[in-house]
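Chapter review: from sequence to fold.
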Amino acid sequence: MDTGNNNYIKTILKGNFLPYGQNFPGNVPPTGRFSNGKLVPDFLASALGIKDKVPPFLDPNLSNEELVSGVCFASAGSGWDDLTTLMTRVITADKQIDMFKDYIKRVKGIVGDEKNGMKIVNDALVVISAGTNDFGYNFYGVPTRRFQYTVDRYQDFLLLRLQSFVKALYELGCRRMLIAGLPPMGCLPLQMTAKFQNPLDRKCLEDQNSESKAYNNKLSNLINQLQTLLPHGKIVYADIYSPLLDMIQNPKKYGNSTKLPSTILIFGDSTMDTGNNNYINTILKGNHPPYGQNFTGHIPTGRFSDGKLVPDFIASTLQIKEAVPPFMQPQ
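The token string follows.
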């Protein structure tokens, strides 16, 4: 959600360098968005006919027009849990509320009076999305909170913080809020990579996905309660879990028709040579025991290994062939 606020604070979590922003409109330098292009706030603003992109509130060059039509207070790496931001040194949820208070003062100053300033706040669409970093950093990654809470209790802890955040926004005049749930946490590249050392073994972690769904169910119920408690507002739950999981499981539906390779070509040294040295004048040969003792047929093939090499495993995983022959092997 952060469209660039982290550019203006002291944190290592910045997206103002390549490859970030390489597809952003206008061929401009990376904007601080953790994306190759636009983010959800930009697409929403564009779809609603407000503006093409949402600038970060901390941008010192914001025009009055930009301020009045909307800005972003989000900070990449933030969350509901203050421990999350303590680790990442980014903007806490409470600090984002303080920034919003400053925003209200500035908007009132621009439009010239209290009533019109508050009308802008009342009519604004407020988009809220957090929680992913809390689980990713504090529960699944560095298990700080896992020593203190069960996953069920940690979900409740985060939702209590979210509830306080929403109430604070309501008291400040926000009346239209869209609150996003968690994505399928177990399918995030970071989570899968941390679990599986071999990239070829990576798959979604069903336990984390189930926990994301449980959190989202609680969030949906909480939003119904908040709607009753805050009767002058309209608070809506945004399900991002289902569409993202569908994109992951059914990529062809969304135009991703990537075809697996049908050919594999290998270059390199002894770690990749499947037997070419057998056919040249060199003392570096692997065609004798103990090489090959665990290879199919238990015979040395010229591989400097007791069995298969990386090219063989890759070819097998891609379902091309079980073993990659050396190019110099006579037909």
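Two observations follow directly from the output. Residues 206-229 form the longest helix (24 residues). The radius of gyration is 27 Å.
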